[in-house]
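Hey L., structure's done. Input below.
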Amino acid sequence: MTDPGERFQVGDTVRHFKGEDASPTSAEYLYRILAFASHTETGERLVVYQALYEPFRVFARPYAQFVSEVDRRKYPHVRQKHRFEIVSDPSLPEPDPGSGACCGRVLIGRQDRI
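Output:
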């Protein structure tokens, strides 16, 4: 499934701009897009995504914010242009299926805290 702007797809691995200086072998600030959703009352588009680092939390963020550019006044030294950008390195770490997160599937039992 592709998002309405054709920029992201379910299953894409993305990096948050705050992780641009993270170790290349670290999964910190890496996320997998799980779904695109609509807010039940407002119809606002949302992106549902899961951290690829413990505790593998699942988040939902407004689509417009997810695809927005980094605020250069607040973060003048950031090199990444957008808040989230696709990472295409095939050597990225995958979550351990026994850890409570598994490649695009949310294991509800691990998401007991918000």
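Residues 97-114 have pLDDT under 50 and may be disordered. Residues 13-110 form one domain.

-- N.
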